[in-house]
Fold this sequence. Notes:
By secondary structure, this protein is an alpha/beta fold. 23% of the residues lie in helices and 16% in strands. The protein contains 2 helices and 4 strands; from the N terminus they run αβαβββ. Strands 3-2-1-4 form a 4-stranded parallel β-sheet, with no helix packed on it.
Amino acid sequence: MAREVKNLLVNRILEGALADAAKRYLSGSLADIGCATKPYAGLVAPYVSRHVGFDHPGTDHARDSIDAYATAYALPVGPASFDSALCTAVLEHLEEP
Length: 97
């Protein structure tokens, strides 16, 4: 994952917490809401069988890792389509989180 030097400590803390949570809570099919470039794909891979990335249609991120375009408010999937969800650095972009 690309990192800015000023954020190294924050990234280390975040990745440690995410690694612990992934071991404890992630399984099966994962919905990665606001996936951008799927920076945590390697971290979650041991725990999930499918990793589907959703991002906003107007995203500025490269589109290589995005599987479907949608807003966080309305994912184009039915109820119980996923076993786990990941949503990092998204809530601060929502009008009504």
